[in-house]
Write a structure and sequence with these properties.
alpha/beta; 8-stranded mixed β-sheet; 28 helices; about 35% helix; about 20% strand; flat
Length: about 950
């Protein structure tokens, strides 16, 4: 018998998942304790579904059936259940079979699989996600194929199998469809899985941002406190759905009375109508009761504003984990705890379920995600002050459930969002973040400001050991625009939201201040742009002069962007309006190029250029009428803040010209737009991960399993020279052999084996890769030279036992480089490249890339370091074999991506010659692999 507390119970198969409609479920192994749940589940399944499952009428489960379906060995017989609120909504099981179709054990590698999903939950993607998880379990247990028998009329289940993306065979036998699925993941199955993941996670966020009804839990009668503030913001923001207040202190019998103009109830369960979203603002110790009431009422999602969780210490962290478990057990998703709230300015929603006070955020084309409420307030204020609005805003607090990854999934195909701005303190699941960011950046800009170089309290992910510049490199490779401050986040977002992308780095500069033009010119050079000589219109220039000059610059083929400088006139107000209109007209006449304005003390010009028009207040949304009762007497209408202004049309957005109070800020925004546009053009066609026929992936896996046998969990093993050469050789990365030379005679014997000329090197840790200390002797062509060098080496640096000298055959002359791969806890696996020596060690001239790397990635990687010209024939030297170097990087990327057991590889030096290259030394570290959250079946992060 196996129970959840049994040591043989495979707890690592448990997972929370997002279903197709955005709800959540928990998948776990079925145990002997589930007999009652299984019977209850089966009784709720229709007779038709039962017939499809058993191919005959089967109204009830017999005792034998229940025993069979709840007793598993988790090797040859496995059952999984999808649960909500602890009750089954779907099941799947496999039974290992032999070639004759009868029950079998390993090494048989085929299993028969069957599903059953409760009718009320069919169409939610339950079977699809169960198939992903049972497939992963089967592969873990050595099963390579699934066989299934399906009745022809059961088209839904046939579609589940045929749409999964696995290689499959299909035949019709004895009145049923026989399907065989090869469980080896394919590019198609991975694409199907990720597309389903995107749709499900985007839908789960949409349910939070576009609810039809909202209940605020924790509203005080006095009107003070967080709950009351959230209720007022919802009411005054013009929310179009039904709105309810929950006040636990209300006396019985007062349900439905008005509280601050909104119908109020003692608990969510007293509301006789559906509630889609609950905003919880009660003390942390009362949150579990509020969550339970919401879950029992069928609420779809929660925004928890309450503090006292992970940010408050170990006790709060434990409370936070329990909160996530409780929320997910009801199939809900959670923003928070310690959240600032959410905003959706869509005309049909107008949701302000946040603590952001009036005036309400204007409607715009920018999506904003923050982890910090304080930063969220600053960003909202900055955008509003400069005339830009939002499509949506999420401040997730401790982001115990919904994270920036979920929001990226939503923004990816959100037509209301053109630019994604994110303030992140950590990357969470780094592999997934970079994958989602790369995909999103291909269609719309993603701008990220990272705060905090260490793990902040309340966040359950590790900080990164990588330097900040390395993190920037990795984000930029994924197409992310990385900025350093929230001010830059707003600056860049304004330009990208209102202006087209530049076609290149050429910048025209014009204005009525020669000095400001020179500052702008210098800033362009600092950012790597190509500025044209500034055009000085003189201080006497009129708005008409600005318009003519801007029109001419935009029409010229010599520039890609125009920066306009403006200093005050005596009559600032009138000319500011006139100048703004003149610049907008010029930009409209010659569209297609971005325009940015640098102003000095022209505050009125900022508002004039933003072209934000006030809109009349929209009528209030329903205040939550109880459909089972007569309407209550009308209450005095509370004062309402102005609703968001209408979103700009594309033409209006183009007329919004961003203005900056300093040349450096405007040019920084332009430079980021230029670099992003270059990335978009370079990635218009996806790079490829080449297939190399000589790679022995299975042999490497077997070798790693042997090496790690007996190594404790968490321990790291550094391979010896022979083992490292063997493992790398299986991926086509040969390492030049070295032979130990503990004495002069041994050195001579080694040279005879390897062949002259040879190198004599010390391998002591304090001298390794330190040619500057004299621990290397090169081009030794005779025995006499070798013996003399050995004597000099030991006299100068120490005894052979201390130096650990080795002999190695000389490699062809070339450029010495360093190639590394390392697993970082917050950034994933990172590929690094640089030139050996001072450039790498002292100046940090190193490029970094994400794994798996494509051919485009590695080509860009080796060209991105400052010393790259040395590889391409600098000052008349011979160019080296960069295609061979690119292939080495690709092979190393494949090795560490295929085998997560490999935690670090250092190839140093790699001598790249005019033809070919030589790896002279390799260090390889291995360990038992951690769970790969980016691979395998879809799951939510576990806490």
């Amino acid at each position: 018998m196996t129970t959840a507390s049994d040591p043989s119970y495979p707890a690592h198969w448990e997972a929370d998942v997002v279903l197709r409609d955005g709800g959540t479920a928990r998948i776990r192994p079925i145990t002997t304790e589930d007999a009652g749940r299984l019977v209850s589940f089966y009784e709720q399944v229709s007779e038709e579904s039962k017939y499809y499952r058993f191919f005959a009428p089967h109204p009830h489960l017999s005792d034998r059936d229940v025993h069979r379906f709840t007793h598993h060995d988790y090797v040859d017989r496995v059952g999984l259940a999808a649960t909500i609120g602890g009750e089954f909504i779907g099941t799947v099981r496999y039974d290992r079979i032999g070639p004759d179709g009868r029950p079998a054990s390993a090494p048989a590698d085929e299993a028969e699989v069957a599903f059953l999903v409760q009718d009320a939950h069919q169409g939610r993607g339950v079977a699809s996600v169960l198939l992903e998880h049972i497939g992963a379990v089967a592969r873990e247990r050595g099963i390579r194929r699934f066989a299934a028998e399906v009745l022809p009329a059961n088209t839904k289940m046939i579609k589940v199998f045929t749409d999964v993306g696995y290689q499959q065979k299909r035949s019709f036998e004895d009145g049923s469809v026989h399907l065989t699925l090869d469980l080896e993941p394919t590019a198609e199955s991975l694409a199907v899985q990720r597309a389903r993941e995107q749709r499900a996670e985007a839908r789960s966020v949409q349910r939070l941002l576009a609810p039809g009804s909202v209940a605020v839990v924790g509203v005080s009668r006095s009107g003070s406190g967080v709950g009351s503030a959230a209720l007022r913001n919802l009411r005054d923001g013009g929310f179009h759905g039904h709105l309810y207040a929950v006040n636990e202190a209300r006396a019985p019998g007062m349900e439905g009375d008005l509280l601050d103009g909104v119908r109020a109830y003692r608990t969510v369960s007293d509301i006789n109508a559906p509630v889609d979203l609950a905003v919880i603002a009660v003390p942390a110790e009362r949150v579990p009761d509020a969550v339970a009431a919401c879950g029992e009422h069928g609420v779809q999602g929660l925004v928890v504003l309450s503090a006292g969780y992970g940010e408050s210490g170990p006790g709060g962290l434990a409370r936070q984990r329990e909160l996530v478990r409780q929320v997910r057990s009801y199939g809900m998703r959670l923003i928070g705890p310690n959240a600032f709230g959410v905003i959706n300015t869509a005309p049909a929603v107008e949701l302000n379920a946040s603590l952001a006070p009036a005036p309400a955020t204007a409607r715009g084309r920018i999506g904003l995600f923050t982890q910090s409420g304080a930063i969220g307030i600053a960003l909202l204020s900055g955008l509003l002050r400069r005339g830009e609005g939002l499509s949506s805003f999420v401040s997730a607090g401790n982001r115990a459930d919904v994270s920036g990854n979920d929001i990226l999934q939503y923004w990816y195909d959100d037509e209301a969002t053109d630019v994604a701005l994110m303030y992140l303190e950590t990357l969470g699941n780094p592999r997934k973040f970079t994958r989602l960011a790369r995909r999103t950046a291909a269609v719309k800009p993603v701008v990220v400001a990272r705060g905090g170089r260490h793990t902040p309290a309340g966040h359950l992910v590790p900080g990164t050991r990588l330097p900040d510049t390395t993190v920037s490199d990795l984000l930029r490779q994924a197409g992310v625009i990385r900025v350093d401050t929230v001010t830059e986040l707003v600056d860049v977002g304004l330009l990208l939201a209102g202006q087209p992308l530049p076609a290149g780095p050429r910048v025209a500069i014009l204005g009525n201040s020669e000095s400001l033009g020179v500052l702008t010119y210098d800033a362009c050079l600092t950012e790597g742009l190509r500025p044209l000589p500034p055009l000085d219109l003189t201080t006497a220039a009129s708005p008409a002069d600005f318009r003519a000059a801007l029109s001419a610059a935009l029409a010229s083929d010599d520039c890609d962007t125009v920066v306009v400088n403006a200093i005050p006139w005596v009559s600032e107000r009138t000319l500011a309006d006139d100048l703004a209109e003149a610049l907008r007209q010029a930009a409209a006449e010659v569209p297609g190029k971005p325009v940015a304005v640098v102003h000095v003390e022209l505050v009125e010009l900022v508002a004039a250029l933003s072209a934000v028009r006030a809109a009349p207040p929209t009528p209030p949304g329903p205040a939550g009428p109880d459909p089972t009762t007569a309407p209550a007497p009308a209450a005095p209408a509370p004062a309402r803040a102005q609703a968001p202004a209408p979103a700009a049309t594309p033409a209006e957005a183009a007329r919004r010209i961003p203005a900056y109070p300093a040349a450096e800020r405007a040019v920084k925004a332009v430079a980021e737009a230029v670099r992003y546009a270059e990335w978009r053009r370079a990635n218009a066609e996806a790079g490829q991960v080449p297939e190399y026929e000589d790679i022995d992936e299975s042999g490497a896996a077997a070798r790693l399993a042997t090496l790690l046998d007996g190594v404790p969990e968490g321990a790291v093993l550094t391979l010896d020279e022979a083992a490292a050469r063997d493992l790398l050789g299986r991926y086509g990365i040969p390492v030049r052999p070295v032979l130990p030379a503990p004495s002069p005679d041994a050195a001579v014997r080694a040279a005879r084996i390897l062949g002259y000329p040879v190198a004599l090197k010390t391998t002591a840790p304090h001298l390794r890769h330190r040619a500057d200390l004299g621990g290397v002797r090169l081009d030794l062509t005779t025995e006499a030279e070798l013996r003399r060098s050995y004597e000099e080496l030991t006299e100068a640096l120490g005894k052979p036992g201390e130096l650990l000298p080795v002999v190695q055959a000389m490699a062809p002359r070339g450029v010495d480089t360093v190639v590394r791969a390392v697993v970082d806890p917050a950034a994933g696996t990172v590929l690094s490249f640089g030139l050996a020596g001072v450039a790498f060690e002292l100046l940090g001239d190193t490029a970094h890339g994400l794994v798996p790397a494509t051919d485009r990635d590695v080509a860009a990687l080796i060209r991105s370091i400052r010393t790259a010209p040395l590889l391409f024939g600098w000052r008349g030297s011979d160019p080296v074999d960069t295609p061979a170097l690119e292939e080495l990087l690709l092979r190393l990327s494949r090795l560490v991506d295929d085998h997560p057991e490999v935690t670090g590889v250092a190839l140093e030096p790699v001598v790249v010659a005019a033809e070919g290259l030589s790896v002279l030394s390799a260090t390889v570290r291995v360990a038992h692999p951690p769970a790969r959250t980016d691979l395998g079946p879809r799951t939510l992060p576990s806490y």
